[in-house]
What we know:
This protein folds into three domains: 3-240, Glutamine Phosphoribosylpyrophosphate, subunit 1, domain 1, CATH 3.60.20.10; 270-442, Rossmann fold, CATH 3.40.50.10490; 448-598, Rossmann fold (3-Layer(aba) Sandwich), CATH 3.40.50. The protein is built from 19 helices and 26 strands. By secondary structure, it is of the alpha/beta class. The mean pLDDT is 95. It is globular and about 80 Å long. The chain has an eight-stranded antiparallel sheet, with helices on one face. The chain has a six-stranded antiparallel sheet with strand order 5-6-7-8-12-13. The structure holds 2-deoxy-2-amino glucitol-6-phosphate. 2-deoxy-2-amino glucitol-6-phosphate binds at residues 304-307, 351-353, 356, 359, 402-404, 492, 609-610.
Amino acid sequence: MCGIIGYTGHRNVQEVILKALETLEYRGYDSAGMALAYADGALEVAKRAGKVAKLRAMCEKQSAGSGKKAAVSGIGHTRWATHGGVTDENAHPHTCGRVTLVHNGIIENYQELTAKYGLGEKLVSQTDTEVVAALLDHFYEKDAKTAIREVARLLKGTFALGILFADQPEKLYAIRNVSPIIAGVGKDGREAFLASDVTALSEYVAEYFVVPEDTLTILEAGKITLLDNENQRVEPDFLQVDWKLGGNGKNGYEFFMEKEIAEQPEVIRETISCRCKDGMPDLSIDNIPDWLLSKYERITIIGCGTAMHAGLVAKQFMQPLLQLPVTVEVASEFIYEEPVVDDKTFVIAISQSGETIDTLEALRYARRRGAGNLSIVNVKGSTIARESEYVLYTNAGPEIAVASTKAYTTQLTALYMIICRMAYVRGVYTAKQAKEFVSALLQVPACVEKVIADKESLRRISHEIMDASDVFMIGRGLDYTALLEGSLKLKEISYIHSEAYASGELKHGTIALITQKTPVITLVTQTKVVSKELSNAIEVKARGAKVYVLTSEKVELEEPGQWENVYRLPALRDEFMVFPAAAALQLIAFYVSRDKGLDVDKPRNLAKVVTVE
Ligand code: AGP
């Protein structure tokens, strides 16, 4: 939910921190702040409610012409508020005595600790984080390592902490539990960084590592030391930086979302092609063994939001094909509904960030029950990836816009490749059929490309619906599951209320909401239900709705003259129509948001990574 950065080295610390916060801002943007440490022990904190741009203006104003000496290290934070409102006081970093720190996570027992150690009068904010600073200052005598371990043992909850001690300005300390921290030494060997994710470090380091949980990490210029609970050195598992943001990362687009929509053909192609061998689906690049795909009697897919929607699409296709019971679970509900999960269950966890705590807890629950497990994750080395027995990394590259687009379609691609391999190893597909499937899937990128090239036609739909208060989306089967995602896109970036509905269910109540000119988008691409979908569309049209028919070039519309707004998607096999449909629905939502003048990439109240339950 928040982004943290730490730096010690020879560069302009303020600029390194600000630039990293601008990159990490997608993780939360209610407030931003930084602390700069100077060799003489001086410490400067600048923080305020609002986005990083406001912090930058504040810092540049403060430092203009100050002529002061250069800072030697610093920490920074961009916040998604959990405890305490969006105010300057609640912005991080928080300082107490000699300690200044930034935090990502939630300390569940902060009030109990405040009372137990009599910290109340030291606190000026309403945050759980400030209590951690006060505790550290309380325990800090001479040795920072001892104080940090004492405090970490007291904390209940999740934390990623970046810590500065005023009397050790050249050193940064970090420790984590669940919430992510990565670290790396600069390419020139003279600086060290810590951050919430690799997007903030990709231009400075060639390799990095995930800070192991409960491992005390000490950063000095050009050196990082990891110590376990017995103060023994720990060697990190290095990962190579293979994500390049380039420039400010938008490559000429106004918004990351537009860029990431446009990247879909390429990243879908990459996600397929590295898993093809002689035309066959081949998951050996992911070290996924065939027995994992053939052993289990039922499948449970877990995820949140868009990731969960990808699971719903997969279920529509894989359940009838494999004749296996498939359930798709909202991860935040999963562990509370006593699900039937055991050693006969194959659990697939889907998560772009690999840090969504609801999905992580659901995965842990499933593993405790002996389920086979595989995660489909985009961020390398993320917690969900590291806690899964098997992981398939999608090739989407960094997805910065809060609204997921290319991560979704590469999740779908990964799922389809897994399903195809499962069908083959289970004898449902012959090798010929598996090759035909992969060959047809390789047509998807070009079709998505076509939709993106036709964005002006979709923009016309956006303009017609952008002032609506409610937009309904109706379809059946795969169309319905694709619309659930399309409806989420519209909601989360345009703030228009939208509902995706199984069109056959509409007349059991919700159709009462349809009035004159209510916009209804219907997706009609699944051969076996086209006529039913169209008759449901006629039902809402008869009640005054303005219907937009998204269908495929191959669908014959009965009485085509009755439909004023028909948008034709390039035709693919029915089960692949979710891809061009996704691109169309993403663009419709994008243009509504952009043309309403909203912050498409950073919608209100949201954050890219949800690390609180
Ligand atoms: C999608 O547009 C949203 N940003 C959100 O629903 C997201 O998909 C969800 O929070 C899951 O995130 P994850 O894939 O990183 O686990």
